[in-house]
């Protein structure tokens, strides 16, 4: 079945059409035009005429924030064929009315398959030769196309990031040593959902579990000190933030480690400049740990972050990732050491790194000319 959209030709398949309400299209028209041209450039370079987009990251980027999921753990419920004639979204018949009413950008045609049909195969058949280029063949090129945020995207990202930071402040200010890890992350989840976002990651470790760097919550009380992490998605964009709360003054060792991990982050920020390659930044990260007294092996004990945006990390930085950094590219670096971690979502602008996950209520200190979060002590 084809669902007609304004100014978009449709394909008759014999099923009844569903009208698309006016004024409900998702996305920014100007930004979407730029994205379409970026994909057409990929097709030109590959000598092909169509590309099939199937991942949540690619779909939400290209559709400029449309929600194409039901289960956060499941595959997208739509696939998109981009060809030289236009953009053709295919979804399951039980999803079509909502997609048409709330998620379909202007100028994108909508076709359906039965709820138990083959989504990707149906979308592929819309290509003239039935054999479109697939995402896996142009992973690097699509990642490059997503690197530089457009103006409307950057504004949405800043708003989401501020909301995520405010949720952290609200929840951790209200916490007590008796608050359990599950209570804390459930409060975070409620605030994230209340601002129209999806909590993709929620982590918490209390004082008894501070050695775990990816701590899923438990029923344990947080005690004298705790870390909380949230990764929140809205309009396809993912903001990431880590914060600490403590109910005492902190030991000299903890305060020293907190200052040193902030110094590692400052080194990473200085290396995050247009034209640098991600593997060069990764080498700086490795050297910075040793420089600030954490030991040369710290980078092996947790991933270090990397570019952000339509994926939590796009990609995680390693010695093998050679992508070139560009202006208006978002990042979330997350250096960590024993009992310490620092993490914010930032945007690389022409005046340097701009921190997006900011709440003026959170205590900070100056590190390398930039205000950086310290442990909250309610």
Task: Explain the overall architecture.
The protein is an alpha+beta fold and about 375 residues long. The protein has two domains: about 140 residues, Creatine Amidinohydrolase, Chain A, domain 1 (3-Layer(aba) Sandwich); about 220 residues, Creatinase/methionine aminopeptidase superfamily (Creatine Amidinohydrolase). The chain is built from nine helices and 17 strands. A six-stranded mixed beta sheet has the order 1-5-4-3-2-6, sandwiched between helices. A hairpin with a 2-residue loop joins strand 14 and strand 15. Helix 6 runs antiparallel to helix 7.
- Going by helix content, strand content and strand pairing, the class is alpha+beta
Question: Could you name the CATH homologous superfamily of the largest domain?
Answer: Creatinase/methionine aminopeptidase superfamily
Give the SSE order as H and E letters.
Answer: EHEHEEHEHEHHHEEEHHEEEEEEEE
What fraction of the residues are assigned to beta strands by DSSP?
Answer: 15-25%
């Amino acid at each position: 079945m084809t669902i007609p959209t304004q100014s978009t030709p449709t394909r008759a398949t014999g099923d009844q059409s569903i009208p698309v309400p006016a004024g409900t299209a998702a996305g920014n028209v100007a930004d979407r035009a730029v994205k379409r041209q970026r994909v057409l450039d990929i097709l030109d370079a590959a000598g092909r005429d169509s590309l099939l987009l199937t991942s949540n990251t690619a779909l939400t980027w290209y559709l400029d924030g449309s929600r194409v999921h039901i289960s956060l753990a499941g595959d997208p419920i739509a696939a998109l064929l981009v060809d030289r004639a236009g953009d053709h979204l295919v979804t399951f018949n039980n999803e079509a009315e909502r997609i048409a009413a709330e998620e379909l950008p202007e100028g994108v045609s909508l076709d359906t398959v039965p709820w138990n049909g083959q989504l990707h195969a149906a979308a592929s058949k819309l290509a003239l030769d039935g054999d479109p280029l697939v995402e896996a063949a142009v992973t690097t090129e699509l990642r490059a196309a997503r690197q530089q945020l457009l103006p409307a995207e950057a504004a949405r990202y800043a708003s989401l990031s501020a909301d995520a930071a405010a949720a952290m402040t609200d929840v951790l200010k209200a916490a007590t040593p008796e608050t359990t890890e599950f209570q804390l992350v459930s409060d975070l989840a409620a605030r994230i959902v209340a601002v129209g976002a999806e909590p993709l990651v929620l982590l918490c470790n209390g004082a008894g579990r501070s050695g775990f760097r990816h701590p899923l919550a438990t029923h344990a009380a947080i005690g004298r000190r705790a870390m909380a992490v949230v990764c929140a998605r809205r309009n396809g964009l993912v903001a990431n933030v880590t914060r600490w709360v403590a109910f005492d003054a902190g030991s000299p060792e903890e305060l020293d480690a907190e200052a040193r991990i902030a110094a590692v982050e400052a080194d990473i920020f200085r290396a995050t400049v247009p034209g640098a390659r991600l593997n060069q930044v990764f080498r700086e990260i490795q050297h910075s740990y040793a420089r600030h007294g954490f030991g040369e092996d710290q980078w092996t004990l947790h991933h270090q972050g990397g570019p952000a945006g339509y994926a939590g990390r796009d990609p995680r930085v390693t010695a093998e990732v050679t992508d070139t950094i560009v202006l208006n590219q978002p990042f979330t670096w997350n250096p960590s050491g024993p009992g310490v971690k620092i993490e914010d979502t930032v945007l690389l602008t022409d005046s340097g790194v701009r921190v997006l996950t900011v709440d003026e209520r959170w205590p900070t200190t100056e590190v390398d000319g930039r205000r950086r979060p310290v442990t909250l002590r309610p």
